[in-house]
Each structure stands twice: as structure tokens, then as C-alpha cells.
Amino acid sequence: MTALLELRAVRRSFGQVEVLHGIDIALAPGEVHALIGENGAGKSTTMKIMSGYLAPTSGQVLLDGVPVTHADSQAAEAQGVVLIHQEFNLADRLTVEQNIFLGREKKRGPFLDKAAMRAEARALLDRLDCRVPVDARIADISNPDKQMVEIAKALQRDARVLIMDEPTAVLTTHEVDVLFGQIARLKAAGVAILFTSHKLDEVRRICDSLTIMRDGAVVAQGRVADYTEDAMAEAMVGRDVSSLYPARAVPVGSGIALRVQGLTVPGFADDVSFDLRQGEILGLAGLIGSGRTELMEGLVGLRAATGRIQIAGRDVSIRAPRDAQALGMCYLTEDRKSRGLLLSQGMRENLTLQCLGDFTNWLIDTRAEEQALTRAIAEFDIRAPSRGIAVGNLSGGNQQKLLIAKIMLAEPDIVIIDEPTRGIDIGTKQQIYEFIHALAAAGRSIIVISSEMQEIIGLADRALVMRSGRIMGEVARADMTEERIVRLAMGLQAEHAGTG
Amino acid sequence: MSSAERLERGWRPDLRVLGPLLALAALVLIGALLNGNFLSAGNITNVLSRSAFIGIIAVGMTFVITSGGLDLSVGSMAAFIAGLMILVMNALLPVLGAGWPLAIAGMATAIVAGTLAGMINGFLITTMRIEAFIVTLGTMGIYRSLVTWLADGGTLSLDFGMRTLIRPIYFNGILGISFPIIVFALVAICGEVVMRRAAFGRHAAAVGSNDRVARYSSVDVNRVRLTTYVFLGILVGIATIMYVPRLGAASSSTGVLWELEAIAAVIIGGTMLKGGFGRVWGTVVGVLILSLIDNILNLTDGVSPYLNGAIQGVIIILAVILQREKRAEG
Amino acid sequence: MSSAERLERGWRPDLRVLGPLLALAALVLIGALLNGNFLSAGNITNVLSRSAFIGIIAVGMTFVITSGGLDLSVGSMAAFIAGLMILVMNALLPVLGAGWPLAIAGMATAIVAGTLAGMINGFLITTMRIEAFIVTLGTMGIYRSLVTWLADGGTLSLDFGMRTLIRPIYFNGILGISFPIIVFALVAICGEVVMRRAAFGRHAAAVGSNDRVARYSSVDVNRVRLTTYVFLGILVGIATIMYVPRLGAASSSTGVLWELEAIAAVIIGGTMLKGGFGRVWGTVVGVLILSLIDNILNLTDGVSPYLNGAIQGVIIILAVILQREKRAEG
Amino acid sequence: QEDTKVIGVSIPAATHGWAGGMNFHAQQAVERLEEVYPQLDFVLATASDAGKQVNDIEDMIATRNIDALVVLPFESEPLTAPVQAVADSGAWVTVVDRGLSVEGIEDLYVAGDNAGFGRVSGEFMADALPDGGKIVALRGIPTTIDNERVEGFEAAIEGSGIEVLGMEHGNWNRDDSFTVMQDFLSKYDSIDAVWASDDDMAIGVLAAIEAAGREDIQFVLGGAGMKEMIARTRDNDPMVPANVTYPPAMIATAIELTAVGLTSTAPVSGEFTIGSVLVTPENAAEYYYPDSPF
Ligand SMILES: Nc1ncnc2c1ncn2[C@@H]1O[C@H](COP(=O)(O)OP(=O)(O)OP(=O)(O)O)[C@@H](O)[C@H]1O
Ligand SMILES: Nc1ncnc2c1ncn2[C@@H]1O[C@H](COP(=O)(O)OP(=O)(O)OP(=O)(O)O)[C@@H](O)[C@H]1O
Ligand SMILES: [Mg+2]
Ligand SMILES: [Mg+2]
């Protein structure tokens, strides 16, 4: 069987730094190939080279056994090689339909055939079970919907080789199922598929063969059937990561750190009340779109909200994030790209932006900033090819680590973490969980919003489940099961707010 | 509740759409109350005809701004093209005689010069990758200088016989609608159609919204950008064809500040200065608002003429208050 | 390999940094070759002193543009403040007498008026959420009108005795360096320090780069924006304090086109028009480039003065060619 | 009442000193005449370019039904056809300062004499520097007016041995002329006199000379009769030995004559040329108007 697309001894440097040291991968038609590895291992770079977005510094790209040099992504696309980017590649101020057909508009005579495009966009999205209106502007739709639009856009392109860079990072279980259905369909049609994910169970579920990368080199290649999840993880990280979630070392404190009563965020959350104890890790579960993000944004003053908030027993009024921060409460956004980091600026500037005051004594103490960056790099294992790199050029996972480091620099007593491990490799996940536990052990209180049930179950002392802007119920650590949470999230089982 | 459902939450009148229209309606009302002749056919024809210059240019500017660009040179460019057109016509007069062939030669000059001027701006901005603000500030100075130099510091005037011949291009019309109004309307309609119904309009918006995404989506970003400038240059040429018959002369003070007026009209009309979204009909409304302000100031006494600029400024700001963006959330 | 080891970076000459400096050096060389007096102390003092007005304003403009804003009103604002300062000083003359207390009252007027004018722009832009281009186009017209009205169309002149008293503010100096140069240098140094080393500069760049990220990072976006406009207003006030002593007069033609010059200087200096990155020293270089072009054109013969603007335009474009961005990749 | 007549006045905006003075006089005249002639209404519009001035005139006809137009054309050529249209509609037309490019349109022409302005200036210069000398000159905003003045000046100094070292545009603006003069002073080690051609520019030039401390320049000749400069001539300031008039008040004369023509049967049509006169310390007092802003 000849490979449809193949990389031979591909190297790639950015400036002085080489990030790929000779990669060989072959994609066969009708097969799903997994590319896994740590954050910054070079997966996205490899995929961009395959699809013409980047040129290899040396080595060959072969299509149907013939060496090709794609001048650009258009040339690759014309050959049927399509990439779904890890970071959204959509024009914010255009609509869903305009984005799907961007660059390949359907025309009737000199004019756009809008009706046909709308119908086809609708059909594509329906195939993905995505109900976002085709006229909505990208800026106004949710992250999961954006991902589905990306996928629809790729499907519209009639790919022979479909390369997907972490498509499931922002999707829910249901949407992942839909996507996998489509992948199966394409596979049956003989499309070669390359797939990346940090969720190894997904790799086991849909992939046939796999390549494992570490530090810009291939460390293992073979059939997925030959690997257990733990074996994959160990090959990626170079150590055993089977015990992902640490055990609770210090008991939850008794004091109430945060009391929320009747918090309403118009249009998103309605009359929400809960308590957060000192040293507690509170999980906030729910389906995507249940309003968890908006609720917490309302809590920290990023959105208009009404309700009563008490911190450490005192009534407080929070109108902007800086008010919350002054009270020791910080929120870490789920959207690192457009809300979390300044992509064109360096790591140092991003790290200290949130609490620049602490580094300023008349003037900014750059030396102290550099020290903080050195500490953050060590503590969160941020891997960057150079210290002065623009944050937009970091790998996705390393951006996420930097974002966590940025919030933690403010040393909040109450920290709300929205999707903390989105796009993070399994080794680093373990480190982040340990870090969260260490925070709790030090008496700080944490709210973790996560769409991964396992994460809530593994991490939280107690979980609240949200649906349609309301708290549907509370699950204690002892009886936390995936089924219990899902039933609440889907509204299949009503339950009175428990101990809170 | 899925986000899809959330988006369909009831229809509210969108101020960003209604805003400019409301402002225009308010101005018409004020004008009508101040002076009985305001709504007379004569006055309306005057106002619309003279809006045509800025209007035609502003339609092109809408595309440039939508695709994330800017052009400060249009006023000087118009002056230069007008001067060139007059020079060419005067030079050809002995050969072609004062007739329509000469007029057509003049028009061709204007269109060709506009196309070239647009190409130069576009080339420097796209291929040479220089900031549009700087390129067009530079060419603004260059064209202004050139027209002063061509006119030797004075005025370039069209031969008088020829002037009488082409006067109808501005002053006459079809069915009582003057040519500038007709041309402006045609340009606006074409512009609106291209913006909304042609691939080019979409591509311009995509380039202005995020040029990287556009590039990754097989849009030839440089070509789109270049085309917007060429398109604007051609429209400047067309505006000049309307302008020369009106005054029959060009000098260093021709077209001064047209660029600011055109940009202001575009923004008053709801196009985003940072690019990514453009609205041609809004631009037309913006142009009308600006022309009406001038007209209304001429209808009334009692205000020191020194303060005209202040009143204009206040009205421009008020017109835009109506359509400001929603407070950012989330 | 630990990540720390990976982190050194090699130094390459960066054209975006060197570009403006090279352009400036080229101009100085050309000037020196064309005219022997170019490098004389007198000429250098002249050029630097008269750069000071635009220079001081351009430093403020750097912050406004860095945070994603724009201010077209600075020229008119300067004219208005100059007029006001003269009126106040003339009015207080009988009370305070022609002495330093009166001069100080005049300066206080300028600073207060500048602060208020900046606050008005900033308020309309941030709290009222109106596009900066429109707000400042509006206030540009308003201030220009007001000064014309205050001067009754003519010129507001400072009392003669007072003029003699404050003349030294422009013409004298310390150790042979004139006050405008000293003030400009101080403003530039403070500006550079604030931009690079103070939290405010960081915040301005963050707001200009992505205001949503800034808001999520506890930055008070509106306050930062407002502050940039107020800061600019104060600097316009300071520039006016240098300006009035020079000729002791203000009229409707004072400060015309200063806004374009200031913005051009900022961009020539390498600050990005779309915000997110600013460089005060670059702005200073930009201002010097613009002043030198004028100076060199005046010192040389042979070119029709009508073409000065064209040469200016060409040089501005050339200066920026040196520092265009690398082609985007990946 | 029925026989109310409307006079439209269209003038360039106050963008430089002389135009400012002219605006002032126009407004004064309108205010005064509205008192004197209750049966007259005035419409005053100022324009920043020729196109805007044509708009103003169109508006006056379409909405204000003017019976007479007093116009100081921004430029002659572009205003000719529109003003002709006004005349053809039967309204009275008074043209001020700049003639139209077709003769016989106007009923009344109150003319300034730009060539004469240049000539008088040149003649003074030739008299003051009998042995010839080196001068620099500042020009106004590039316009036909400026060209006429400069041509008149150059013709008058021809053969007098006066050498014009350099000529640049000071745009009738104090700041610009200050800058230009500073650079002239750097460029030329010895200058005998300066023709500033306008009093605003003369003020800028004088400031530059004073700041440079140069003793070689004997005098600066401005023009247009700004009251401060007339006063300095009157007071025998050696640097300002003379002035050449170009009175902005001519607009007031024109408006007044038009008002008279419209309200009475007195014959006011024809051409009134307001010549440029040399002002010297001897006759300066006659040209000093303390109330004018210019
Ligand atoms: N444009 C660029 N300039 C400089 N360095 C870059 C650039 N793009 C990628 N890199 C570097 O190349 C390395 C590999 O990045 P890549 O995005 O391929 O990682 P990845 O395996 O996809 O990681 P993740 O799982 O976090 O997405 C990283 O160290 C990254 O910082
Ligand atoms: N209509 C909308 N307009 C703007 N942004 C939206 C809209 N709907 C969702 N988003 C954004 O998309 C993201 C997804 O949040 P969503 O409201 O769907 O709920 P959630 O419960 O927080 O789910 P999750 O955190 O798992 O994504 C948020 O950042 C939200 O701000
Ligand atoms: Mg990646
Ligand atoms: Mg969320």
C-alpha cells in the first residue's frame, strides 16, 4: 500500500532554533493516523508542513509518492490536502456561511449564489449536528460552534488528506461523537486522516496507527492496537503517568471563603447560590453552553450581574475584574487566544500584565519580571524555543501553561479556573492537578470549570452541575460518578441543592 | 440552552443600522422647518448633485476601509486629475476641436490617471508593504504639489468654448435628474451590489477582518487590497469628470480636505475604521448627512459664520452617538 | 535539554529599529553636503526649537496611537489654547501687571485648557463609545471655529510688553540650549521612560493590542484610554506655552495640519497605527526627519518651491520603506 | 413685508490675516446696514474653497431668493460661470477684488489691484536701495493673486540692480514665514532687505531677524496695512519704513454700494478700483484704523 502523503526526514527551524529534527510519517488512504506528543513536541508544525502552511527547512513532502513543494496552503488544498487548525482560523467579523465558503464562493454569473451557499452551509452544519445560525457572526458564537464551523469548512473542501489539529479540545462528548461519525465516513471513502489529541482515549477509539513525538523527533511509531493508553502516555512523557489525580492530603477547611446568593447574569445565569469553603476544590460541571463561563464572568465583574456576594464573610461589590482581584479573587479564562494572552507580545509582558503593580515601584522592575518568568517557566514547564518569542508562536499547550502562570502570579485566595487543561498534554496535566491540590492544601479555594467529567471527578471535593443557567444539583465527593453528573447536566434528574 | 437558540433571542431594532438613517431624517426635518424652500426640487437637486463628488469617492473609500486600508490622497488626487484633464483637453483642442471627441479624450484621461494613481498607492501598500497612512500621506503631498506646479501656482482653466460644451455633464440630466445624481446613484448601487453580492466584497471584508485567515482561505490578499485602491482611483477619476464641467478649473485648492470628508462619511455610515465590515448604503447616508449640514447652515442666519465649523463638528458627533457599538461584554 | 538553555537568542540588526535612524542620518548627510551652514549651531538650534511643538505633541500622540486611538484635533486644540492663553493674559494684565505672575497665569491656563480638552475627547471616546476618528474630527472643527470666533476672524495678539517679557521662553535657554529644545527633550525622555518602564506604557500597549485581553487582566481599559487623551491634551498645552512666546499671537491659521504631521512622525518612528506597539524615541526621530526635510528644502535652490510638497512626500515614503515589516509567515 | 430685498454676500473664510480682516469688515457692514435699511436682509456665507463657494451661491439662489450678490471670488475661473448664472437670473451682482474671467457680468466691480500692489512694493524697494542690493522675498499661498503681485514686483525692480537671492512661500502665515526666514538667514550671510509682501508674513520675518540678531538687514517691507505695522511705520521704526495698502475694508465698500444701489436710484454701477498706495511715515496716520482687528 503506497502512502497518500508522506514526510521524509523533514526538519524545520524558526530562526536559529530547530524544532523538528528529521520527521518521517506516512499516511495511508482509509486510515486514521494519530500524532501525539507533549506540548511543543512539534505536532502542529509537522501538520502545517504537510498542508503547505510552512515549508520544511530540509527534507521532502511526498504526495502519492511524488515529491511536492506546496507554494502555499492554496496549492496544497488544490491537491486535496486540508488542515483544520488548532487555533481557530476564522474571520471574526464575517458570518458562519461567509467563513465556510471564504475563497471558494459559489457564484451564479458574476454574483454570489447566496441561497446555494446558505443551503449547503446549513446542510454541512446539520451533518455535524451543529445548530448555529449560518448568519451569525463568528465573533458572536461559542468556541465549540467555532470548532464545528472549522470542521464544516474543511468538509466543504473535499479533502483526500484531512489533517486535524486537536479538533476535540473544545468539543463536548456529544459533538465528539458526531465528529467521529464523520471521520468514520471519510475513512470509508478512502480519505487519509491525521489526528491529534491530548485525550488518549480518543486516540484508542478512532485511530489505526500512531506516531509519537518528543522534542521534535519521532520516538515511536506503530499500530494503535499495540499500545495501551498508559503506554502511549509513557512514550510521550518519558515517565509513568498512570496516577493522574493526586490524593487529597489536607482536609477541606471549615471557613466560608466565598458565598454567592441569587447571582443572576441576564441572559445566561439565573438566581445562582453556592458556598465555597477555604481550601476547597469545587467542581462546576455542565454541558458546554450551560452558562458556567458567563456565571463566573458575572461573578468577577466581567459581565453585568446582580446578586449578593460575600468574601470572607463581608459583603462586597465587584464591578470590574480589578475589584475582584483586589479582594483576592481571580478568574482564568477558557479562551486563551482572544481573552487570555496578547499574542503579539512576549512571555514576560504577558506574565506580569495582571499584576504589574507588584512589579512596579515608580518604574517596572524588569529584573524582578525576568525572575518571575524564570520561575514560571520552571514551575509550569513552559517550553519555548527562545525567551523573547512572541506568545502567538508558542505551541498551544505552552500558551495555556503561560496563562495559568499569569493568573497564579496574582496569588489569589479564590481562583476560578475555566477549562484548565484544554490542549495540555497528559504529563503536564498531572503537574497542573498537583499544583491545584497544593493550592488547596495551602488554604486557598478553587473553582474548577471543566467539560471533562473525569477531571471533575478526579479533582473536585464537591461538584455543582449547571444546566441552562441554573444549578441543577450538587454532588458530593463520595457519590461522584459520571452518570450522576451527566443526568443532572442533561436535566434528566432533578435534585434539590444539597448541603450548600 | 444552546448558543444557537440564544442567538435567536427576539429582534431588537439595531441602532447601528437605524442610527445614520435617524440622523439623516432629523436633519431633513430641521431643514424643512427652517426654510420653506429646503424641500424644493431646486435645492434638493443642488444638494444631491454636489454630494456626488465626495459620494462617488466615498463609495470607493468604503471598500478601502473595509479591507483594512486608508487613503488620504483622494482630495489631492482629484485636484491633480482635474488639472491633468484640463491640460490634456486644452492641448488637444487644436487637434480635435471643441466637440465631444475632445470631451471623451478628457474623460479617458481622468479614468486612466485615476487607475494609475490607484495602482501606485496600491502597489506601494501591498507589494512594498508600507503603511497605508504613510503612502497616501506621501502621495497626497505629491499630487497637491504637482497640481500647483502644473498650474504655476495659479488656476488651470479649461478653454471657454469647451467649458460651455461640457457644462451639461454637471448641470443637465435625464427626466429632471441631473447627471451627477444619476452617476452617484449608479456608483452607489454597483458598490452596494459588489459589497453584498460579489465575491470581491466578501474578500475585502475578510482581508480587513483578518488577513491571515483570508490568506489561508485561498484569498489573494494583495490582489484584493490593490484592487480596492485601483477601484477608488477610478472612482476619483469619475468624480473628477463630474467636477471639471462644474467649475471648469482646477487649482491647488481643489479637493482640499475631501479625504477627511470621504472618510468621515464612510464612518458615519457605519463602516468600521479598523476594517472587516463595510456598508455602502451607509456611506451614501453619511455623505448626505455631511452635505445637508452645509446646506442647512446656509439656510439660516443668526450664527456667526466663524462658528459653522463648530456646529458641523457637533452634528457629526451627534450623528454617530446614535450608532455607537454596544458596550463590550464577556 | 532544559528549556532554560534553549532560551538565548542571537542578535541581528533589526531594520524596524535601524530604519528611522538610517533615514535621519541620510538626511543629515544630504543637508551637510548641500549647504555648509546646515550643521552650524544656529541652524541646528532653529530646527530643533521649531520641532519642539510638533515633537511634544507627537510624544503624546504616540501613547494615543499605541493604545489603539487617534487624535485629529491637536492642531486646532493648540490654536484654541493659544488663543485662550492670550485672551486670559490680556484680560489679567490690568490686575497682575506685565510680570511673571501673569506669565504663570497664562501657562496655568494652557495646561488646564489642555487637560480639559483631552478629557472631553477621552470622555466621548471611552464613556460615550464613539469612534475616535469621528470625535476628534468633530472637536477639530469645533476648536478651529472657536479660535476664529475668539479672534473675530483675525489674530489674537498678546500685549506688547508682555510679549517682550515672555519671548525668552522660546528664544533663550540654558548653556546655549534653547528652552523649547530642553522641554522637548524632557518630554521625550519622560515619554520614553513611561512607555518602556512604567506600568502605564505596558497597559497602553496591552489595550491597543487586544482590549479584551487587557480587560480580563484587570486593566482598567477606559481609564488607560482616557489617560492617553488627557496626557496628550496636557502636552498640547505645554507645546502652546512654547508657541505663544515665539510670535505672541494666535489665529485661525495656527496649528493647521499639525495633527497630520504629528501622526506621520509617530508612524515614521515605527509605532503601529493599529495600536499595540509604540516607540517614543522613534517618534522623536520621526519629528526630526519631518523638520529636516523642510529645512533642507529651504536651504537648497534649484527646485521649484511648488514641488516642495512632492519632495516631502517622496522622502516620507522612502524613510518608511527602510523599516517596513518582514513579510508575515506561517 | 413684500419689498424686503435680500443681499447675499459670499466671501472666502478667514484662513489668513487679510481674509480675517475682510471677514470682519463684511460682518460689520452687514450689521450696520441691517440697522440702516430695515427693508434689506443679508445672507453672509464664508467658503474654504471655490467649490464650497459655488455651493453657497447655489443655496442663496435656491433657498434665499437673493436680489443681489456681493461676491469676493475665491478664484476667478471657477466662479465665473456660477456668478454669470446669478446675473442671468436678473439679480444684481457686485464683484469684489478679483475679477471674473469674463467681462461684463457684474453690475459693480470693486477692484483691488494686485499687480499694482506688487509694482508699488517693487518701486519702493528700488528707491530704498538705490545702489542695488540683495533681498529675499516671501510669497503667499500659491494663487493667481500671488502670481500677479510677484510679477508686478519683479517688473518694478527690473534693472534696479536688486538681486533676489531667494523666494519661498510663506503662505501669508506668520509661523511659516518665521520658519522660512530663519532658513534664509542660515543660508545667506548677507541680506540687505526683505520683501515680505504681507504684514502677517512681515511679523514672522521680523521675529526671525530679531532672534538671529542679524544687523545686515536694513528693512522689511510688508503689505496690506495691518494696523500694528502702520503704527510702526508712523512711529518711524527703521525696520518698517513703509507699507503698501490693500484694504480688506473694500468688501464693506462693496456691500454698502450694493445696498445703496438696491434701495435708491443712485447710479452705483461701474468699476471702482481701489489702488494700492505706499504708506510712509508722513502719511501713515491716515491709514491707521485703531478699531480694525487687522
Ligand atoms: N512561528 C514560530 N516561530 C518560532 N517558534 C515557533 C513557531 N511556531 C512554532 N514554534 C515552536 O515550535 C515548537 C513546536 O510547536 P508546535 O506548535 O508544533 O507544538 P505542538 O506539538 O503542536 O504542541 P501543543 O500540543 O502544545 O499544541 C514550539 O516550541 C513552538 O514554540
Ligand atoms: N451568544 C454568544 N455571544 C458571544 N459569546 C458567546 C455566546 N455564546 C457563547 N459564547 C462564548 O463561548 C464560550 C462558551 O461558553 P458557553 O456560554 O457556551 O457556556 P459554558 O457553560 O461556559 O461552557 P464551556 O465553559 O464548557 O464552554 C464562552 O466563552 C462564551 O462567552
Ligand atoms: Mg499544537
Ligand atoms: Mg465555558
TrEMBL record, chain A:
Domain ABC transporter per the UniProt entry, residue ranges: 5-240, 247-493
Topology versus the membrane: Peripheral membrane protein
KW Phosphoprotein (keyword) present: no
Superkingdom of origin: Bacteria
Subcellular location: Cell membrane
InterPro entries: AAA+_ATPase, ABC_carbohydrate_import_ATPase, ABC_transporter-like_ATP-bd, ABC_transporter-like_CS, P-loop_NTPase
Molecular function GO labels: ATP binding; ATP hydrolysis activity
A GO CC term assigned to this protein in UniProt: plasma membrane
Keyword terms of this UniProt record: ATP-binding, Cell membrane, Membrane, Nucleotide-binding, Repeat, Sugar transport, Translocase, Transport
Translocase keyword on record: yes
Protein name (record): Monosaccharide ABC transporter ATP-binding protein, CUT2 family
Organism, as annotated: Paracoccus homiensis
Organism taxonomic ancestry: Bacteria, Pseudomonadati, Pseudomonadota, Alphaproteobacteria, Rhodobacterales
Automatic annotation (TrEMBL), chains B, C:
Location in the cell: Cell membrane
Transmembrane feature ranges: 21-39, 51-70, 77-96, 102-125, 132-151, 171-194, 226-244, 256-273, 280-297, 303-322
Keywords from the UniProt entry: Cell membrane, Membrane, Transmembrane, Transmembrane helix
A GO MF label: transmembrane transporter activity
Superkingdom of origin organism: Bacteria
The keyword Membrane belongs to this UniProt entry's keyword annotation: yes
Membrane association type: Multi-pass membrane protein
Keyword Membrane on entry: yes
GO-annotated cellular components: plasma membrane
Pfam families, per the entry: BPD_transp_2
PANTHER family (alphabetical): ABC TRANSPORTER PERMEASE PROTEIN YPHD-RELATED-RELATED (PTHR32196), RIBOSE IMPORT PERMEASE PROTEIN RBSC (PTHR32196:SF72)
Name recorded for this polypeptide: Monosaccharide ABC transporter membrane protein, CUT2 family
